Fold this protein.
Amino acid sequence: MPAIRSSFLRRGVAVAAALPLLTLAACGYGSKSTTDNAKEKVAAGSSEIDGLGSVKIGYFGNLTHGTALVARQQGLFQKALGATKADYQIFNAGPSEIEALNSGSIDIGWIGPSPSINGYVKSNGKGLRIIGGSASGGVKLVVNPKKITSLKDVKGKKIATPQLGNTQDVAFLNWIADQGWKVDANTGKGDVSVVRTDNKITPDAYKSGAIDGAWVPEPTASKLVAEGGKVLLDEASLWPDKKFVITNIIVRQAFLKEHPKAVEAVLKASVEANKWINANPDQAKAVANKQLEADSGKALSPKVLDPAWKSIRFTDDPLAATLDTEAKHAVKAGLLEKPDLKGIYDLTILNKVLKAEGANTVDDAGLGAS
């Protein structure tokens, strides 16, 4: 199977190493959350699933990972897992989570499409499977309105993306190419200066004038707006039906094979969380914010939380066709050799859960495991 271009791999590893994690954990990949949530207590009389003492779940401290935030805060993971303890690690970068998955430091994770593709390709199709969807949308191009008043004004400016080759970086590079502009994908130099900047420091970089804007996920986009930025483009407007995968759920293939009941339990919690989020959006955003506060020590202000949450759609559908399109964008940008993604999805357990809930099943766009 074709691999990611070596220059991209070297730079990707270097960038990932440079990105500060929320807190260094013993495993060295992400911060290990130890918040004592009463709703996460193991219910008396419950039993372990598959004889497992724990299931290790990873996610980012982003609103685009709202399914995991809500499921955790509401105790849904622990409820579904019975006496098998739900353990958590919080990540700030896709490569770190993929490394943790490959090492066995986590079993299941919420993550963006580009790291999912990269992780699958790098392992020659043996490392992971995408087992469900989580969120669509929530990505915007926010700019300094004093410097940029129209899309054509982006040319010649300094625009941040979270990381070389990450989901937003690939999307922005593809948009630049569609404008007929040239940028070297690896260096970020060209008709637009693409500045790879950790989401945590992007608002400060914007305030200092180091960047003129950013193509970023929520809540970073709304943080920039709160600092005086203007939304110039919502990425959803570039996609059919305004839907594209921003977060999906992955699992170690060995874990999926050995512990399908545990995977089913986590997916049940995810489906339950999405159903509740969509039925109770205002309450759900408060719950997600509460978990963000528990994880990071700081809640989002309403002027950031409200617009950010409104732009995200939570869905069990992994929107597989859009992941295939995103892979093609990475190939076009020169960051990825043409990949064989056949087998990246296994939606069998998710569709079992959805059928039991009386919900519509979802499609893998022909990229399912045989």
Observations:
- The chain is about 40% helix and 15% strand.
